[in-house]
Amino acid sequence: MSSRIAQIRLVSSHSEVYEPCDDSFALVDALLADRKNLLEHKPTLCMEVGCGSGYVITSLMLMLGEEANGAQFIATDINHHAVRVTQETMEAHRVHAELINTDIASGLENRLAGLVDLLVVNPPYVPTPEEEVGREGIASAWAGGENGRSVIDRILLVALKLLSKRGWLYMVTLTANNPSQICRQMRKKGYDSRIIVQRSTEEESLHIIKFWKDFDIEVDAKDVVLNSNAAPAGVMDSVLSQLHRLSFWRSSDVNSSRSGK
């Protein structure tokens, strides 16, 4: 199994680039846990936003391997040092991706709109003062603003534009980010979700969440809009709350059967 992920000793580094840590390992473990489904999914365009050291995107390329059938890979980072370090990490593992120094997907949204089948993100999720968000260097890897959601919410908006109709999104979240609210927010956009990996460390509790388009939800959402005038606000809130709890907390087996995963 170790040959299917990046080797730490071959991961490049720089003082201004975030090194692989618990969140990076949890995200790669989630992708490994879902590897069979990923291979069956056969993504044609895979993308990582915020590539950092290159550990995650390199691991993704290695675990998909030749079975990816010529899939293309793109990775972005706002930190130019991270782009260079990721390039070095990939070269050490003899894999290749298109690397772009940009903020999330700035300048790429029109080119990639509706084309990304697999999007992976380990966002800046640490709650910080808003003025720390977007700073140059390594701080850009963790400074997430109020509740750690400033950058996450921006990424979700971009993800909705980039993901194809069969696109999957894997995202790292922290308990402080209110992951259940994120899932409800995405559900309103027609995306179902489930936790692939949940891991607690001494400092934080991490959730790796997978999102995918559920067209049944999309139909339900339209029905809610059409019938909202006929239902009291309290009833509608209750229905949405129940839908959310079912989506976020139900067992993985039920989610797998609905999504074909």
From TrEMBL:
For this record, an example GO cellular component is:
nucleus
Molecular function GO terms recorded: nucleic acid binding; protein methyltransferase activity; S-adenosylmethionine-dependent methyltransferase activity
User: The Methyltransferase small domain covers which part of the protein?
Assistant: 45-130
The superkingdom of the source organism is Eukaryota
Keyword field: Methyltransferase, Nucleus, S-adenosyl-L-methionine, Transferase
A Gene Ontology annotation in the biological process aspect, one of them, is:
methylation
Q: Which CDD domains match?
A: AdoMet_MTases
Q: Could you confirm whether the keyword Transcription appears in this record?
A: no
Quote the subcellular location field of this record. Answer: Nucleus
Q: Which InterPro entries match?
A: DNA_methylase_N6_adenine_CS, Euk-Arch_PrmC-MTase, PrmC-related, SAM-dependent_MTases_sf, Small_mtfrase_dom
- NCBIfam families annotated for this entry? hemK_rel_arch (TIGR00537)
Membership in a protein family: Belongs to the eukaryotic/archaeal PrmC-related family.
Name of protein: HemK methyltransferase family member 2
Q: Which gene encodes it?
A: LOC110421218
